[in-house]
Amino acid sequence: MINSCTHILGFPRIGKKRELKKALESYWKLEITQKQLLEVGKKICEENWKIQSESNLSFITVGDFSWYDHVLETSALLGVIPKRFLESDNKINIDTLFCMARGQSLNKKEHAACEMTKWFNTNYHYIVPEFSKNQNFQLTYNYFFEQIDHALSFNYKIKPVLLGPLTYLWLGKTKGDEFNKLNLIENLIPIYNEIFRKLKDNKIEWLQLDEPILALDLPNEWIKKFKFTYDNLNFHDIKILTTTYFGSISENINIINNLPVHGLHVDLCSAPQQIHSLIKNFDNQKTLSAGVVNGRNIWKSDYNKIIDQLNILKQSFSKNLWIGSSCSLIHSPVDLESEQKLDPEIKNWLSFAKQKTIEIKSIEIIFNKKNGYEKNLQQNKFDIQSRLISKKVINPSVKKRISDINPKFYHRDSNYEERSIKQKNLFHLPLFPTTTIGSFPQTQNIRELRKKLKEGSISNELYTQQIKEHIKECITIQENLELDVLVHGEAERNDMVEYFAEFMNGFIFTSQGWVQSYGSRCVKPPIIYGDVFRAKAITVEWAKYSQSLTNKPVKGMLTGPVTILSWSFVRDDQPTKETALQISLALRDEVLDLEKAGIKIIQIDEPAFREALPLQKKDWEEYLSWSVKCFKIASCGVEDSTQIHTHMCYSEFNDIIHAIANLDADVITLECSRSNMELLQAFENFSYPNEIGPGIYDIHSPLIPNTNFIVMQLEKALQFIPKERLWINPDCGLKTRNWPEVSKALKNMTEAAKNLRRQF
Ligand code: GLN
Ligand code: ZN
Description:
Blueprint: E1 6-7, H1 19-28, H2 34-54, E2 60-62, H3 70-78, H4 94-102, E3 116-118, E4 125-127, E5 130-131, H5 143-152, E6 158-163, H6 165-171, E7 173-174, H7 185-201, E8 206-210, H8 220-232, E9 239-243, H9 253-257, E10 263-267, H10 274-281, E11 287-293, H11 303-316, E12 321-325, H12 344-347, H13 353-367, H14 373-388, H15 396-403, H16 416-427, H17 444-455, H18 460-480, H19 498-501, E13 504-508, E14 515-518, E15 521-523, E16 527-534, H20 540-548, E17 555-559, H21 561-566, H22 576-596, E18 601-605, H23 620-635, E19 643-648, H24 657-663, E20 667-670, H25 680-685, E21 691-694, H26 707-718, H27 739-759
Parallel strand pairs: 1-12, 2-6, 5-7, 6-8, 8-9, 9-10, 10-11, 11-12, 17-18, 18-19, 19-20, 20-21
Antiparallel strand pairs: 3-4, 13-16, 14-15
């Protein structure tokens, strides 16, 4: 009989009702004590373990809980605390962690917060470890071991989880003198060895050691360090499961075979094709843990498909084949049973974290043909089938429109040069036109209005009338500031994806489907379950109204297809690019309706364009080809004289600049301020042909840029971009700022534009 242990890589720590979020925020406001906060964390851990235990998983995963972020938790465990956060007694406690993450201690002392960045290609953000040249590592913070003691007190059979040493180093950044952080591994190994020894004292049999960087295109020197590192680790007879996720490890199998570890976990949801190279090349004396239940999506697993995969693997791994989640379940919502209002037919197709633990056990029962397996399999077949044939999913007219797409859909009538002449004649904008990215401050008043509308305590008419007042005020302020291209301010939008998704068919919304984004912040991604189309115009009335208030052009403002897709849960019953095409057609309809309504400038935001890039370079071109095409399908139906803008906010463009150019937007506005305009070098090197608005100040900071500073930024930008093609704007939307800040900053910005125009 095959030993098929069942396990998950981690469970959401935010709590079924976002208890952790609420407790954290109360604690930071000094409304509850630390003891009360710790109690909430304890309860969540206990609840999570109970779920795994009741699902009869072979192991309860422990050590996955963290107060803010698991990378930050690892930094604390290893003693990687930047000096500025250390109190005189050098003691580390959870307040130290919060201060690192938030830049503010409980007594309101300010420190520069640690950086935060995206966890691989997910929407989760981690706190970036900071390493100094002679970084010392030491075990000073005990929470990891406290979790283990706590779980052991229930007599659970546990499998602790820890970030592996190389992935941990990879995720960090160096501070101060330049040096190669990889060299720190020698200082880090003894600390890991000390951890293993302590785990041994706790009679731990298996440890999950996460090394997801094995699924990246790693530089050679990092790959090589794996062998050295693992040979020097002393596991004290604890069995190590090296865990990978989010991609294929095919290229690194030989490296992994040579590591003195006992097992490997692979993600068969994001990279099912690696099954073949595993069979061929992975050492079958080791344990293979198959990540077959998708931790990053919300669909019920198709047991038949999974059993097929496991049967293929069984031929080679006949001794130890484990069954698990593809990655940690922190990327999926906690419990489907919290959803009281979902369409029952669609709800029956879904599975959240709790349900996934049950699925894993069911798959094991079916795989090993244990008692009652047939009934379980039959029910699953029925559920999967019901989704495949549902009229809610399939819409033949959408399919027809997709098959009718031809190259005319994704090319403008003329090239940029010809278009720009027509646009210049139409708009008569000054040199260095000024604009903003779209949103203006979302005041308390605006948020309350939206809340009241949702609760039904105000009528639609009253809501519309009041939002119109806000738009009017926003337009007047922009006119007074003498901006050249205006926006309506996005007061009617809660969020840039949900707002559009609510008007498109094929999306459904949960009430409790929260997923941690960072710290106490959660997002509630919409679910795309069926063919997408736009039933009626979404933004046209607002846009028309806004344009009626002024003679200056007001931009129509849309969210692009890749961003809508990336910030939703996507279908798994058709290729993602098919869903993307459907969203692009819906947006194309909106773009054309805006144009018909007299909107001459339309901006399609794609902030997620880069983050959606696959982890491995070999997969980039395929992604870029469909994502660029989708943007063009959305944008290219308009006349030459209609100006298309796009906005992206991140500062690494070098390697995808050709794709950005292929989008052929007339104007692109970018986040640039934090990179000091240097990223524009890439645009110059590429001879980027269209217009660019590099963000000239950082909207994430409350600091108000003065006119001189802005002029200096612009002079830098002019080294890379010819004056005829340079726009002036902040680096992102202004919704998180307050009005006094925004007015002053924009005033200085338009002053700077005037100064510069005088010089040219
Ligand atoms: N138009 C959006 C805004 O201004 C863009 C947001 C973004 O780039 N994330 O808020
Ligand atoms: Zn932005």
